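Researcher: Structure prediction, please.
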Amino acid sequence: MKKRYLLAPGPTPVPETVALEMAQPMLHHRTPQFSAIFAEAAEDAKYLFQTQQDVLILASTGTGGMEGCITNLFSPGDKVLVVNGGKFGERWGKISEAYGLKVVEIKVEWGTAVDPKAVEALLEKEKDIRGILVQASETSTTAAHPIEALSRLTRDRDDLLLVVDAITGLGVFNLPMDEWGIDALITGSQKALELPPGLALVGLSKKAMKFNEKSTCPRFYFDFKKEKKNLADKTSAYTPAVSLIIGLRAVLKSIKEEGLENVFARHNRLARATRAATQAMGLKMVAPDCPADSATGVFVPEGVDGGKLVKMIRDEFGVTLAGGQDQWKGKVLRIAHLGYVDTFDVVIAISALEMALKKMGAKVEFGRGVAAAQEVLMEGY
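Model: Predicted structure follows.
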């Protein structure tokens, strides 16, 4: 027998109680019974987004929410500033170009955060930029970008939007949409929302909806104006992911019961514990100056094949972590600590890493990483 543990940055574990909620007999999506569930989930999503505005619920992955923001908020020929500091920043550029937008790119070294002063200087130089597209946390590099600082550059301008991919950020650390003036905030169900893949949630400011009125990008399925109209009738424009929305209602209820401040503190504690553990093991962090609380990335020891290490931890030890991408493939290991993850998930991840590294011939002192993690994890008890 081998018990398996899922500690990659998406999909993340689904709580048993939520899985049981989703296992209920199927409801028809155009009934008062489902409309009540849909409306409750949409209302509670405002608590998570910290907004008074509507939060759209789309049957899609998070990338669909990203694409929807491009097609609904901009027009072909519009100029957008893309913060490219990893695979998902790169994706903003690819989506924008697919719809004929002009991309001005700020390339950020992997593992670092964008400098708001550099963004400000570029906005000063290119005054016709209509949107800043950025990640709250760049999952491929485990780095967090300074969203609050960026919001100060956009919130007092009627001609400029801040569009944030918070797919591994929302529900992990503080991103108060209304307070900071974030215009579009996106997340996906398979991250901190503790659900299977299949939902994208998008919060939109009043300013964003004014941009929507002028947008001429082609769209059909991802039509935010149509979705807002249907949301008022407690439904979606097209067939919703019924079971996932039933699960979403349950997850959002549990988040409200725990309280956002406690949710953020829990994620921060798990993140600090993981960082302390890997540093105690002598592993170098990939984003030491701007680490995200969603996942911790480290370079594997010299002489160790990171791809084989991830495979061994998954197949022999039963613990699924994530490796590096592109230039970091085979060189980086990523340990997620977002969503339905708690104290002993971190202990398991670190102990499995110690054992696998030992088996691959690396110099490892058993228990050193685990002990460092425990010192931080004790704060929760």
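Model: The radius of gyration is 21 Å.
Researcher: Thanks, that helps.
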